[in-house]
Fold:
Amino acid sequence: MDMKKLIIVHPGNAHLDDYVACAEALVAEAWQDPDRAITLHQRVAIARREPTPAEVENPDVLVLDVGGVHDPKKACFDHHQLPRGTHECAMTLFAKSVRHPTTGESLYDIMCRLYPWYATRCTLDSCGPYNAAREEGVEWETVAKFLGPFEDIVLSAFADGTDDERVGITLHFANDILVKIEAESRVRLALERWTTAQGVDVIDFTRADPADVDVVSDAILAPVRGGVAILHDKRGTGYALLRIKDDPRVDLSKAKDMPCMRFCHANGFYATTKEPVGRGVLADILGTAYVEQKQP
Structure:
């Protein structure tokens, strides 16, 4: 077997930045040799320690979030020595150095699109949680109320594992990235967008594979300001209608008496049809669910 590729990250508490940067490194490794992607856990080791001066100079050793150097030619991606206020961290510095082997798009742009939290978490790591929250127009104390224990559990396992175990833990997220990239490409080819007679935008996922839609619909809908998404119903044979970002023009509960409907949530944000229906019927449903807005 070839000598294992070594990735070095900092010791002490593990952070989302270094964990994601390692996952991105595994994605880059998979892109270099897709046929051997499944053996990444055998070909890579992730060490948590300070690098030696020789390792910092060695481009065959990937140094992430430690070492005091940002130099892609040396495979070093630390940000702690950068000027105060710089919105960069190891995961963004590394992602900007990697390009998709087919499209040429930077991994950074892909990550920002597929994971809406990505850029904000960079700000949190580089400028602190209070600055990150203020830049998003909220207070950190408010954000903290929405946090669960799962990130800490994953990072603790990453920190406590052996060099080899760490690769397996990181592969979970690396595989998620790879799956999302492929699924997004297929979904966008099948995606349809249309507008109802009332001016409500519709994002129609029904021509795409439901399994693909399941992993990328949130990312695709993240920049959409309002309207309705049409998807396959996971619990039935029909379609699911989802109000996007609580668009005030849409109250799907108003369609509850239509014979084609299987379920309409009382709060008006979700509904399902009994069977797949054509665009004309969908337009009728949304016309019934339309709420005219009074002009100020």
Notes: The two ends are 71 Å apart (CA to CA). The chain has a mean pLDDT of 94. Residues 163-190 form the longest helix (28 residues). The chain has two domains: 5-185, 191-288.
